[in-house]
Amino acid sequence: MQTIFRGSIEFGLVSIPIKLHAATEDKDIKLRQLHAECKNPIKQFKFCPICNREVDSNELVKGYEYAADRFIVISDEELAGIKSDVEDKSIEIIEFIRLSEIDPIFFDKTYYLASNTAGTKAYALLKESLMTTRKAGIVKITIRSRQRLATIRVFNNQLVLETLHFPDEIRSTMELSKPSSIKLTKKEKETALALVEQMTEKFDPSNYYDEYREKLEKLIKTKIPKRTEQVPDASHILSLMDAMERSIAHIQQQKQAK
Questions:
Q1: What is the pTM of this model?
Q2: Domain limits for position 154
Q3: Positions in the chain whose pLDDT score sits under 50
Q4: Ranges assigned E (strand) in the chain
Q5: Which of 41, 154, 180, 187 is the most exposed, having the fewest neighbouring CB atoms within 10 Å of its CB?
Q6: 12 located within any domain
């Protein structure tokens, strides 16, 4: 697995060297845009509508649109200064919480926390503590220049880091239209609860798969040309040899005529 972060977990006075690996992968099938006429992929380029020309990457700067069509430029040096203030390779556990206290809407992406050889015992100690107490650690970590809130928990006997959305990233439900108050009868409630109980099963992720991706893969396989070995065309070779022999004879006749 590709390592996307190297650092350490600070657990009290204990430092645990770790490596971070993405725990999930996107298996969505990517379709490219082709020119219908020649079936070749199109190319996208950066174009300035004011200067009316294509621009190179070295001509670009970063900017923030603070009002409609009004921008301020932020230099790489300014960004680097902010990054150095918040970026730290140590992941300090701020506090411990029960996972049940976090609503799933806050969860974002999962990473495996792999132990370096030097921190094996400390790693095992933290993992055992979390498993025994059934708790998770709350941490802050900077991944790819972005500071993230995250939890450290145990999954399949492995420490994992789960990034969380900050509270201000969760949209308010106040923006949604509220359904009008509907009175439900006791019988309706009991019937709905009975239906839920009848349909309740133990969660097994292997029971589910991406039907669209499976059908798309089958479609792609039927459209890919099958490989066939190129068998030399003997008649072509003979005709080519015949043509070359005739050419030699023709040249010799011309020389004799001269």
A1: 0.70
A2: 3-26+88-169
A3: 237
A4: 3-11, 14-22, 47-48, 53-54, 62-67, 70-74, 90-97, 107-115, 136-143, 146-155, 158-164
A5: 180
A6: yes
| DSSP-assigned letters across all residues of 177-207 | PPPPP----HHHHHHHHHHHHHT-----GGG
End-to-end CA distance of the chain: 76
Is residue 226 a part of any domain in this protein?
no
CB of 103 closer than 8 Å to CB of 153? no
Span 72-118, pLDDT tens digits: 999 888 887 776 655 667 788 999 999 889 999 999 999 999 887 66
Compute and round to an integer the Cα radius of gyration of the chain: 32
How many angstroms separate the Cα of 247 from the Cα of each of 89, 196, 234, 256, 257? 76, 88, 20, 14, 15
Domain presence at residue 59: no
Q: Which two tokens stand for residue 130?
A: 């979390």
CATH number of the structural domain spanning residue 132: 2.40.290.10
> How many domains are contained in the chain?
1
